[in-house]
Amino acid sequence: MNWERKVHRIMKEIIHELISEEQVEERIREMAEQLSRDYAGKTLHMICILKGSVIFFSQLAKAVKIPVTMDFMATASYGEETVSSGLEVRKDLDEDLDGRHVLIVEDIIDTGNTLSMVRKMLNARNPKSLKICTLLDKPERRETEVEVEYVGFEIPDKFVVGYGLDYAQRYRNLPYVGEIEFAED
Ligand code: IMP
Ligand code: MG
């Protein structure tokens, strides 16, 4: 028997509301109105970047007043700790983008590394137009410039959860956006 004592620190996670459910959903309605105007007379092909954007994506799609088609993509960035990072496509789109008006829907733009690679990759598939729409943007953290046409909220450099965003896969279902604080129990 090994009686060596294991020590582990239990951290409490405290979520501080940053953007209320009402504020998020009001902003999404505004964004949907803008999209409906900008794409009037067209069909919008909305791309959901899994998993983080799933809640924003659904809410936005419901509020858009023009014809919409949907597709889903999952990516992971590898080599996070190295300088050169690449994009790993875990689930690619089911449909071609040829001749379509494509809108990439993302939860948050942080360094910009992921979205700049996604944008390049999808642009190479010959869409008629390609724009990016994100619920949240942390401009202070940007490492790679990426053009983003629609931004819900610019937020300071804080780690946020809720409305699709996770910490260790949890909190995605919180109906608001909150900042996570780690406190010793
Ligand atoms: P980046 O723009 O390439 O740095 O990557 C953005 C991705 O990192 C997002 O799609 C999120 O999955 C994740 N991420 C960045 N900031 C946060 C945050 O504050 N909370 C939760 N996930 C985040
Ligand atoms: Mg994400």
Topology (elements, then pairings):
Blueprint: E1 11-19, H1 21-38, E2 44-50, H2 54-63, E3 68-78, E4 86-91, E5 101-109, H3 113-123, E6 129-137, E7 150-154, E8 160-161, E9 177-184
Helix pairs in contact: 1-2
The structure holds inosinic acid (IMP) and magnesium ion.
Residues 52, 77, 106-115, 159-161, 165 line the site of inosinic acid.
Report on the structure:
The protein is of the alpha/beta class. It has a single domain (21-155), classed as Rossmann fold (3-Layer(aba) Sandwich), CATH 3.40.50.2020. It is 21% helix and 36% strand. The protein has 3 helices and 9 strands, in the order βαβαβββαββββ. The protein has a 6-stranded mixed sheet. Strand 5 (101-109), helix 3 (113-123) and strand 6 (129-137) form a beta-alpha-beta unit. Helix 1 (21-38) crosses helix 2 (54-63). The longest helix is centred in the first third of the chain and has 18 residues, at 21-38. It is globular, with a radius of gyration of 18 Å. The mean pLDDT is 93. The structure holds inosinic acid and magnesium ion. Residues 52, 77, 106-115, 159-161, 165 line the site of inosinic acid.
Descriptive tags:
185 residues; alpha/beta; Rossmann fold; three-stranded antiparallel sheet; 3 helices; 9 strands; globular; binds inosinic acid; binds magnesium ion
Contiguous low-pLDDT stretches (5 residues minimum) are: none
On the 0 to 100 scale, the average pLDDT is 93
Helix content: 10-25%
Which ligands, by name, code or SMILES, are bound?
A: inosinic acid, magnesium ion
Instruction: Strand order, main sheet: write it out.
Output: 4-3-2-5-6-7
In CATH terms, what is the architecture? 3-Layer(aba) Sandwich
Describe the sheet with the most strands.
6 strands, mixed
Order of helices and strands: EHEHEEEHEEEE
Tell me the number of structural domains. 1
Computed structural class: alpha/beta
Work out the strand percent: 35-45%
Count of helix runs: 3
* Number of strand segments: 9
* CATH topology type: Rossmann fold
The CA-CA distance between the termini, in Å, is 30 Å
